[in-house]
Amino acid sequence: MKRATWIRTLVVIGFVLLLEGLCRWGVIGRMTMIPPSEMADQLWKLLQSGRYNGHIFETLGNVAVAFVSAVVGGFVIGSILHSLPRARRAIDPFLATYYAIPFFAFYPLLVVIFGLNAAPIILIGFLFGVVAMIINTMNGLDRIPRVLIKTARVNGLGPLRTAWLIKLPSAAPQLFTGIKLAIAYSFIGVIAAEFIMSTSGLGYSIAYAFNNFDNRTMYALMLFIITLVTIVNAFFHVWERRIMARRGQ
Amino acid sequence: MSGSVVDMAAAQRGRGFAREPKPGGDMAEVHAELTGVKRVYPGADGGSVHALGPVDLKLARGEFYSVVGPSGCGKSTLLDVLAGLSAPTEGSILFEGREVAGRVPPGIGVVFQEDASFPWLTVQDNIAFGLRRAGTDAAEVDRRVSYAIGFMGLKDFRKAYPAQLSGGMRQRVCIARTLVMQPRLILLDEPFGALDAQTRLLMGDELLKLWRETGATVMLITHALDEAAMLSDRIGVMSARPGRLIADIRTEWPRERDSRIAAEESFGAITSRLWGLLRDETVKAAGMSGSSR
Q1: Short-list B220, B255, B257, CA closest to B236
Q2: Which among A150, A157, A246 has the least Cβ separation from residue B133?
Q3: Fewer Cβ atoms within 10 A, N terminus or C terminus of chain A?
Q4: How far apart are CA A103 and CA B12, in angstroms?
């Protein structure tokens, strides 16, 4: 293991132990937070009981749909904008200020349009993730060396084969950044939307536990989300590292 | 690369890069011909930039032709229109008797100055890229790629990625990728421009070996007068922009030659003559671009 990885691991372990100590010694009251060991214990019991399986699968399903839509939609829109420089120049300011928009303020409107079901939640997850993918797709396509496109022409490749065989792999590092951001934003969008107005899902379950002073369930579910997101991100991180290592980066 | 590379090339002649036994370099046969070729680009201010021409040029089959000229004179534009990468504004281009109409015809291979290796592919996959796209059968791909890897001295780097190679080795990968396609006309756009002087000399020797091996017609774009003088049968000198061919110099070197001809008396005479022709054009080009050099 590298020195930086050791230090990172020690920092995380140290933080968890500190939190455990502060909770056990009463510095942090039990109504505020329970010790991390109890969070883990409670999570294990919840998962064993299967009581929250429906909520977990619903949230993961919503995140998956929002994420895949954001990646595919972002790639398509990014590619189209890249090929239309005038349209891109017109839209660029909106993209630059996009994340300043408070999407959740529009949730009631989305409910009115789509009804009180999964659609508004997925749409918010999609809206959160899609622009990160659009911006990174355009960045990736901008950085393709012109000489590679010329090489494609010398090899007689048409536009589709050039896109598939040259542009896509060449832009892969930036596309990967877009994919990583899209998954993070999809999680944030879906869980936050569930938290605010949904009647099911992990976000709703955390809000329900919070409103009923059920700290053990609330922290157990929060630990579940943190663990899940960390595992998913670690997977993409390792994958990205392998790709970049081949390119000497 | 060692001298054994040449021996290997000789032993495998006809089984490596060469498409078929060559007719012995029929220098009279016109392989490619440009007639009245002009290229005008739209300018940034709504006007136009006359980059090239008119140019008239005939390349004989199997000859090694170089083009020298001041920076920005349209050398690369000339290569682009001949390759079919860019359509001429006026004039016609024929390759093997057929019009080149803004599309790269089969039989033309291009090596660029910039690193054109694909960073996501290994050396062998880079070299095999064009063959696989062309639907060549796997055994033939393997045979040609193995030969090219051996010829270019890349045996120990077969599975390496371009990021693990030096600039010179990456350029060899690009040359090998072009040569496995067995092009009959090889266009090189300052392929050694990014390399140090010693590596350039060695790569020049390799290029001469490849030229003899393949029997292909070669057009080399270069800004290095010594490189042009050492490698070429014939050298075209271009004027400042808009680039026109203002002189045509025959070197009269024997086909079997390498960088040691730089020691010949006539080598100095050729480079002096080239510089004599180019000096005024270079000053003109520098003035046109507003450079203080």
Answers
A1: B220
A2: A157
A3: N
A4: 68
